[in-house]
Fold this protein.
Amino acid sequence: MTNPWTEYRGNGMGPNGTPVETRGERGRYLADPELVIAVNTAIAVGQPLLLTGEPGTGKTMLAWSVAAELGLGKVLEFHTASDSKAKDTLYSVDNLRRFYDAQTQDPRTKDLANYIEWRPLGEAIRSPDRRLVLIDEIDKAPRDFPNDLLDVIDQLEFQVPELGRAYRNEGPQQPIVIITSNSERQLPPPFLRRCVFHYIEFPRSQALKRILEERLGTDLPARLVDAAIARFQELRAFGDGLEKKPSTSELVAWLKVLQLAGIDADDLEKRKLSDLPSRGALIKTDADDRMIRGQAR
């Protein structure tokens, strides 16, 4: 059997030893060692992994990294809303389509199973293969959603009253569940007790360099990279704090623009924050822009 502590390595290499690119971006997702331990802990104990951290730290991308490295296929994503119920993660009934089919006397209307749509967690529980489920931004959901959700995950079984039957996980390995939260509100203590928790710290300078190399290549001018990271971190730490701090994806976009514009390290280092080139790639709110222009003189 595979040692659960080595299932996920976080090095961006797939099961066949080839690099796995980050979804929608060039380069691999390189996980911090503590994050790798958290993922493997969750797998080993069979509990969901609850990820928190500021936006842009890679919480959602981790799910795709784990699925790709372990060969679990496409991530089954559920995006939580303010009115979500645990049942919404399992299945839904397309009554509207059934109604329209009934108007044309379609014979499929005789079997309700034709109108069941399996949602991410329901699909993962029914699947004979191990799948990965991402429950994104759970802190947006009603208060009873987290505990109801974990009841289903604990049992790996659910009822479909409309069909008069139950479904349970019959696979050799249970689904992997990753849950993200932006900490907009406190989650219930019973829910927290039944998860493996990890807070993703914002990347430091060396980690940012690795990310830039993965996304933009290794032929970047070293001094420009160092200068861009330094100004980026200075901006993130500015004054009393920005309304929206720039994330790693915004640093990648900004450095790409700096290269295209021919900005060199000397020029970047001597500029005031209020005069940074293409500042709009980093600053995304009017309040933050006014604060930078008003105080960084």
